[in-house]
Structures are given as structure tokens and as C-alpha cells.
TrEMBL record:
The keyword Electron transport does not apply. The keyword Hydrolase applies. This is Alpha/beta hydrolase. Signal peptide: none annotated. It comes from the Bacteria. Transmembrane segments: none annotated. One of its GO terms (cellular component) is membrane. Residues 27-265 form the AB hydrolase-1 domain. Keywords: Hydrolase. GO terms for molecular function: hydrolase activity. It comes from Nocardioides immobilis.
Length: 276
């Protein structure tokens, strides 16, 4: 495993880690709201890293990346796009597959809107979100997020901690280990409440990106997800001409943790297909 510091949009320092052969086809993992790169442990510590160059980073404001509190560091889509572009450039990733979990879907669309799709091979949305705002709340984004958001953005630490403990459990439907749950609570809690609020302050509509997409898009969606609802995936499939679905029955918001073997197998197939 190698650790990098990459200067992203506006010069913000990003924490980046990579595993696997340096000449392997690259996969860039992009996590979601209030998470960090550790959410991909079942991918980074798997056979994926035997064949592929596996790269994961902490979003701005998350994990070990720089975390200024001011809203302007999080509400400009170009900054998010610049982060992805900087990692691709700095690590010299040759046509990576971009894997975006939840909020990572917005980040991928920010990148494609700003930089185009010529430098990427494919996209995998993992419970990927593509709309944010009042119209999406309750229709595309569900109670697994909405019921916890107010307390998760509270300045009061006990309130925030309790919200994140409850949020983590709302994400998971299939049983996972106590270690995984405890780690998830930890990486959620280290994100400042103000930054969680800043991420949700954006108004986002990615239909322009989806309708023009030409690289393959795999939509990985749990049928039992109460955070990013299955209706979000249905919208992506109806809007994007190249999208294909992989539905996970009885799975919540974390298919890469709830069913990692299947998830890794499907990501392997996608990456091999687009790199030939």
C-alpha cells in the first residue's frame, strides 16, 4: 500500500492510498457523505488488488484529507471535479474506472461535466445519487438519510454521535460484523458536523451528464436501500442510454460491504471488459 498527498481543487490537500500492481488497470474509488476510504476495505483487501491498481481517497473535508469548515470549499462543483482530475493526473491513472458510492455519484458527475469522459473507461454507481435538493427529498433520497440529517449536522457532539450511530445502522440491511459497524461509526464521527451540512447545501441535477454519457455505466443498487432509494437508480436507468443495472435483493445502502464477493466479481468483469 502506498500513501499520497495530492493537491486538489483550490490547493486543498487530499489523502490518497493505492494498492495492487502499478501497471494494472486502475480503479478509483470515491466514497460518500461523511465516510472515508476505509469503507472500501473489502475491495482494497481483496483479489481486486492482485489484478488492478486500486486507488481510494478521502473526499475533501473527510478522513485524513484537509477539512476547512467554510461552505465555499464544498458548494462549488468544479472543486469536486478538480479533486478527481488532480488524482488522475498526479497518479497517472490511465483511463480508470470510477466507482462512486452514494454522494460519490455527484462527484463523478461533477468531474464528467467539467472534464468530459475521454480520460475514463467506465463508471460504477454504487447506490449513486444524481439529484440533490427539496424535490429529491422523500422521492429519491429516503428516510435513512433524512431522519438523521438534522441531528447529524448539530453542533452538540452527543447529538451528532447518536445520529451517526443510527445512520450507520440504517445503511445496512444484511448482517455485517461488529468490527465493520464500529469502524463505520468511527469514520462517520470524525467528519465535522458543519462539513456534513455543507455537502447537503448544494442543489444538484446530473441529468445533463447522464443523458450525454457514452462510457459504460453500471448501476449497483440495493432493493432495500432507505438512504438512496431504488427510485434514484430507476431514474438513472431511464435517463442514461448506456446504463445497465445490477439489483441486489435484500441489500441496503452498502452492497460493497453487505455482498462484497458479488460486488467485486461484477466490478472485475466491468473493468476487464472496458480495458480490452
Amino acid at each position: 500500500m502506498q500513501v499520497h498527498t495530492v493537491l486538489g481543487g483550490g490547493g486543498l490537500r487530499l489523502h490518497v492510498r493505492e494498492w495492487g500492481p502499478a501497471d494494472g488497470p486502475p480503479i478509483l474509488f470515491i466514497h460518500g457523505w461523511s465516510q472515508n476510504h476505509l469503507c472500501w476495505v473489502r475491495q482494497c483487501d481483496s483479489a481486486l488488488a492482485d489484478e488492478f491498481r486500486v486507488v481510494a481517497y478521502d473526499l475533501r473535508g473527510h478522513g485524513m484529507s484537509e477539512a476547512p469548515l467554510e461552505p465555499e470549499h464544498y458548494t462549488d462543483g468544479k472543486l469536486w471535479a478538480d479533486d478527481v482530475a488532480a488524482i488522475i493526473d498526479e497518479l497517472r491513472l490511465d483511463r480508470p474506472v470510477l466507482v462512486g458510492w452514494s454522494y460519490g455519484g455527484y462527484v463523478i458527475c461533477d468531474y464528467v461535466r467539467t472534464y468530459g469522459q475521454d480520460r475514463i473507461a467506465a463508471i460504477n454507481f454504487v447506490e449513486g445519487a444524481v439529484k440533490l435538493g427539496e424535490a429529491a427529498f422523500g422521492n429519491l433520497i429516503g428516510p435513512g438519510f433524512l431522519d438523521h440529517f438534522v441531528d447529524a449536522t448539530a453542533d452538540d457532539l452527543p447529538t451528532s454521535i447518536q445520529a451517526m450511530r443510527s445512520f450507520v445502522r440504517a445503511c445496512v440491511v444484511k448482517p455485517v460484523s461488529d468490527d465493520d459497524i464500529e469502524s463505520a461509526v468511527c469514520w462517520n464521527v470524525v467528519v465535522p458536523a458543519a462539513i456534513r451540512a455543507n455537502l447537503a447545501a448544494r442543489e444538484i441535477d446530473c441529468d445533463d451528464v447522464l443523458s450525454a454519457l457514452e462510457v459504460p455505466l453500471l448501476v449497483t443498487q440495493g432493493r432495500a436501500d432507505s438512504v438512496v432509494l431504488p427510485a434514484m437508480a430507476e431514474h438513472v436507468l431511464a435517463t442514461c442510454p448506456v446504463a445497465e443495472a445490477s439489483w441486489y435483493e435484500g441489500v441496503g445502502h452498502v452492497p460493497h460491504l453487505e455482498e462484497p464477493e458479488r460486488f467485486n466479481r461484477e466490478l472485475t468483469a466491468l473493468t476487464r471488459r472496458v480495458q480490452t
